[in-house]
């Protein structure tokens, strides 16, 4: 029997082949498994879902955003009144009210003299609605569609060169502008963030995180020189980490506030933000004494429940945090709540705006220009790069 270099009797070549075959087989199997694993990697979800489902609310801003998203996602980057009438059958039955007017279900909550006052204030609107209801269904649908498309001229006027859609001469169609500017990209980023119900569940996080980043830049610009400004949210914070109790306790120390909750009063694995996304304060010369100015903000992309969410960062909602002087509360939203008023502009759903400073789409766009951060949006996000023309019925 031949010997190997170590002087040990080596087995015949025929006896070595099965061993070598096993080794080669294992290597091939490993490569095959690796390829199979790579092939099974879950692909990235498409951006849009449910684009064929119009809003179930009568709010103007929701319907206008829906139309703009349909235009953005359309293969030809256009959307007309005819397209709107074709893609929905609900429009004829829905009560699309004018901006800033309470819904009927909201009016029912008033009683007595207060209810009479509300109805009296809206007599003209009620008369218009009654006249509209007297029309045939098709005529009502046409009137509602015309009403919605007329609002795009308002948006175009208010946003100016930042508005990324072109309105046809007859006002019956909008189209996506070519060679968009940084301001137009920002508008579209905010439009996507305000339309989460039309976004695939697995893609919403990238939009909400991006919106918080946008909001943080504006919040920092709003704070006077010398202020400390930090993100408090669960994902973007670098100063506040760990369990929510520890984060709030650290914030109370920064704010020189009284904090009267113990960790056992929280859920064991609560690492959330407690309704705070952005916080700020002035250290007042670092003298260590109580009584410093502070501010907090919540960033929300919810399209309909913002009237409740706007309260999360307010002193009234955080009774466990006591300062000598209440902090200023901000609410950032990507929605466009501009409404036409007799003189200038007002808020849509103004009665729902509470004791917070609302920073909506218009303010974000204008303040981004004022604070010199508009160039940050020269390159669109991955979602915005994918969005144009991506809808397939």
How would you explain this protein's 3D organization?
With 393 residues, the protein is an alpha+beta fold. The protein folds into three domains: 1-31; 60-180, no CATH class; 203-373, no CATH class. 40% of the residues lie in helices and 11% in strands. The chain contains 13 helices and twelve strands. It has helices at 13-39, 60-73, 81-87, 104-107, 112-121, 123-133, 137-159, 182-193, 204-222, 244-255, 306-309, 361-370, 382-386, and strands spanning 78-80, 165-167, 173-176, 228-231, 258-259, 278-281, 294-299, 321-322, 328-332, 338-340, 345-347, 357-359. Strands 4-6-7-9-12 form a five-stranded mixed beta sheet, sandwiched between helices. A hairpin with a 5-residue loop joins β2 and β3 (173-176). α8 (182-193) crosses α9. It is elongated. The model is unreliable at 13-17, 33-38 and 95-125 (pLDDT under 50).
């Amino acid at each position: 029997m031949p010997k190997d270099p170590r002087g040990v009797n080596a087995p015949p070549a025929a006896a070595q082949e099965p061993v070598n075959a096993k080794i080669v087989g294992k290597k091939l199997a490993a490569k095959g498994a690796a390829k199979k694993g790579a092939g099974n990697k879950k692909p990235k979800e498409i951006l849009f879902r449910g684009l064929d489902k119009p809003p179930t609310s009568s709010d103007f801003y929701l319907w206008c955003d829906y139309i703009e998203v349909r235009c953005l996602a359309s293969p030809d980057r256009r959307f007309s009144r005819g397209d709107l009438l074709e893609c929905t059958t609900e429009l004829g039955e829905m009560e699309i009210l004018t901006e800033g007017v309470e819904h009927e279900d909201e009016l029912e909550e008033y009683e007595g003299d207060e209810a009479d006052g509300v109805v009296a204030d809206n007599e003209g609107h009620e008369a218009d609605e009654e006249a509209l209801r007297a029309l045939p269904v098709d005529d009502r649908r046409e009137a509602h569609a015309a009403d919605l498309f007329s609002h795009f001229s308002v948006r175009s006027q208010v946003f100016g060169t930042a508005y990324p859609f072109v309105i046809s001469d007859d006002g019956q169609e909008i189209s996506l502008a070519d060679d968009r500017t940084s301001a137009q990209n920002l508008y579209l980023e905010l439009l996507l963030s305000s339309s989460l119900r039309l976004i695939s569940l697995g893609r919403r996080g990238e939009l909400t995180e991006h919106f918080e980043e946008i909001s943080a830049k504006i919040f920092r610009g709003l704070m006077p020189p010398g202020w400390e400004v930090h993100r408090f949210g669960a994902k973007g914070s670098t100063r506040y980490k760990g369990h929510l109790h520890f984060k709030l306790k650290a914030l109370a120390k920064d704010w020189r506030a009284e904090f009267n909750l113990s960790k056992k009063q929280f859920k064991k694995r609560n690492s959330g933000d407690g309704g705070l996304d952005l916080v700020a304060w002035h250290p007042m010369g670092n003298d260590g004494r109580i009584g410093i100015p502070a501010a907090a903000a919540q960033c929300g992309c919810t399209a309909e429940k913002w009237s409740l969410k706007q309260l999360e960062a307010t002193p009234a909602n955080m009774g466990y945090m006591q300062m000598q002087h209440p902090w200023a509360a901000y609410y950032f939203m990507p929605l466009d709540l501009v409404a036409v008023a007799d003189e200038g502009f007002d808020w849509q759903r103004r009665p729902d705006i509470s004791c917070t400073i609302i920073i909506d789409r218009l303010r974000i766009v204008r303040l981004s220009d004022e604070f010199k951060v508009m160039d940050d949006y020269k390159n669109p996000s991955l979602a915005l790069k994918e969005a144009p023309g991506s809808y397939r019925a």
